[in-house]
Amino acid sequence: MTYFNVTHISLVLRTCLKLNRGFVTHASIKHSFNINFQRLFGYVPICSRLIHTSKSNGQTQKDGITLLPSPQEVTLILRKNEFNKEFASGSVKSYDSNQLASNDPIEDTRCEGQCKLTPGLLMGVFDGHGGPACAQVVSKRLLDYVAAAMLPTDTINAILKEPQGALVDTYNDKIELINDLKTIYDNSFKEFLLELARTPRDDSNVYTAMEKGVLQLDSDLSREVIEPFYSNGVINQKTLSVALSGAVVCISYIDGPHLYVANIGDCNAVLGTLTDDNEWIAKKITKEHNSENFDELKRIWNEHPDEERKTVIRRDRLLGELAPLRSMGDYRYKWSTELLTKVAVPCVGDKAIPANYHTPPYLTAKPDIFYHRLSPKDKFLIIASDGLWDMLTPLQAVKLVGEHMKGKVFYNPLKLPKKNIQLGDINELLLHRKESLKSKPKDRNAATHLIRHAIGGTEYGIDHSRLAHLLSLTPDVSRMFRDDITVTIAYFDSEFLRQCPA
Questions:
Q1: What are phi and psi of 333, to 5 degrees?
Q2: Which of 14, 107, 370, 413 holds its CA 20 to 30 A away from the CA of 267?
C-alpha cells in the first residue's frame, strides 16, 4: 500500500499539469454542463440490469490516513470490465474491449454484434452526456436499426410475417432495459420495419442504410415522447429523460475487406497500419463534430441568421452549453420553443430552454460516414470515446497497440516450428523467448493496456503513483481530471485480406 494524506488531489493536479496533457481543464469544463443538467432533471432509471462500471476508488482508511490501492488492486480495477471475443472466420480475427468509469454512473456504453441476416460485424462506442440514459438506450437499439436498413424488402416482409427478435447477435451485452420501455421500443422498431417495406430503396448501399438507421432511431426518441403527450396529455418521464439527455456515437460495419464508419460527435475511429519498413501509421478515419472542426462551424453558422452568429457558438460550445455539435437525443436543442415549453419545462423548469434559443433545431444526428477498403497492412481498428483521445494521440494509441500485439504472443505456450528439431535449435528458441519476454505486456487485453497507459503513462513508462492517485479519486473529483473511457479494438486477419479479390 502507498500512503498519502488529503493533499493528494493537489499532487495529482500538479502531476497532470506537469505532463501537459491538457485534459484537466477539458474534462472539468466538459462536465460542468452535464452535472448541472443532471441536478436539474434528476436521474430516471431505464435499466433493470447494468454493466458494473460504477467507479470504485479502492481507498481504505487506517489511523485517519488514506491508503492508495496497491499495484494488484489497480490491476483489478482496470480489468473489471474487459472483454475479448475471437472469430473463426472472416476479416476480423478478434476484438478487445474495456471501460473505465469516471462518472457514477458511467455515461459511456459500447455494443458489438454479428448481423444475423447479413455477413457484417457491427461495433459501436456511445458517449453520453447529461446522464447515461440516451447512451444506454441507443446502444441497445441502434445496431438493430442499422441491420434492418441493410435488408432487402423481401426479407423485411418475411420478418413482419414471422418476427425473429433481434437482428444482431450481440456479445457481452450487460444492459437490460425495463419492461415498459421494451414494449415502447419494440413497437417503434416494428413501425420502422413497416416503413422500410413501403419505401423503395437500394438496400445494397451501406452508406444509406447506416444514415437511415441513425436518423430513424433519433427521430423515434422524440416521437416516443411527443405522441403520448398529444394523444392523452401524459409525459413519460423515462422516454423524456432519454430524449433530453444525449449521446455521441461512433459505429463501424465490417464486411470482409469493406470498412464503414459512421460518426456523430467527438468519438473517433483510428486504423493501425504497418508499413513495409515495420513502422506504425495511425490513419484517423473520423472527424470530430466540435468547435475545432471549422467546416462544422460554418455549417451551423449558415443554418442560422447572421444576428445569431455570436450566440449560436459561444465558448466553443453550441449555445454556450454543448461541446459536440452533432449528437443523438439532446432534444433541448432540436424541439421548438413551444414544444419545450409544453413538454420539458413542466418537468425540469425554465432552464430546459437554452438561452438565445431562437431558430431551432440547432443540432442534428446526421452522421458522417467514411469508407476504407482494408488491406493486409491494416492490422487493427481502435474505436474509443474522447476520454481516451483526451489523453493519447492517435499515433500514441496505435504504437501502444502495435507493441502490445508483438508482446502478447508470449501469453501462449511455445510451439516448436517442426517435429525433427535439434536440441541446439530449441535452446536458441528458448533464449530468444527469454529475451523477448521483457516486452510481454502486463495486460493481455489491449483495451486495458491502452487505458493503463492513458491514465498512468509518462515518457519514462507507467507511473504507479499517478495511476493509483487518479483511480482513487471519488467521481465528483475524478471528473475534473478525466472523462469516462471506453475502448474497442478489432484485429484484422491479414491472410484473409490478402486473399480478397481487388
A1: -110, 10
A2: 14
Report the run of H or E that residue 110 belongs to, with start and end.
strand 108-115
Mention every residue, 6+ apart, whose C-beta is less than 8 A from residue 253. 120, 121, 122, 146, 206, 210, 259, 260, 261, 262
Cell numbers describing residue 199: 419505401
Residue 20 located in a structural domain: no
CA-to-CA distance for 64 and 257, rounded, in angstroms? Answer: 59
Q: Which one is predicted more confidently, 54 or 212? A: 212
Total number of domains in the chain: 1
Determine the structural domain holding residue 464 and report its residue range: 71-414+426-496
Per-residue pLDDT band at 131 (split at 50, 70, 90): very high
Grid coordinates representing 137 are 438506450
Q: How far is 311 from 45, CA to CA, in rounded Å?
A: 34
In sequence order, the 6+-apart residues with CB closer than 8 A to the CB of 165 are none
Q: Are strands 368-373 and 378-384 parallel, antiparallel or unpaired?
A: unpaired
Q: Which of 220, 203, 197, 112 is nearest to 149 (CA)?
A: 203
pLDDT digits (tens, 9 = 90+) for 43-96: 567 876 555 444 445 555 555 566 899 999 999 999 999 999 999 999 999 999
Determine the Cα–Cα distance for residues 136 and 456; give it in Å rounded to an integer: 28
314-355: pLDDT as tens digits: 999 999 999 999 999 999 999 999 999 999 999 999 999 999
Question: What is this structure's pTM?
Answer: 0.88
Q: Which residues pair with 346 in a beta bridge?
A: none
pLDDT, tens digit, for every residue of 231-278?
A: 999 999 999 999 999 999 999 999 999 999 999 999 999 999 999 999
CA distance 246 to 332: 10
**pLDDT tens-digit readout, 404-463:** 998 765 566 666 766 778 888 777 777 766 666 666 789 999 999 999 999 999 988 899
Q: Which residue has the cell 484484422?
A: 492
Q: Alpha-carbon distance 73 to 58, whole Å?
A: 7
Pairing state between β 457-458 and 461-462: antiparallel
> Beta partners for 123?
112, 252
Residue 448: give its domain's CATH number.
Answer: 3.60.40.10
In a domain, 12, yes or no: no
The whole-angstrom distance between residue 53's C-alpha and the CA centroid of its chain comes to 14
Assess if residue 35 is contained within a domain. no
Q: What phi and psi values does residue 279 have, to the nearest 5 degrees?
A: -110, 140
Whether 62 is in a domain gets the answer no
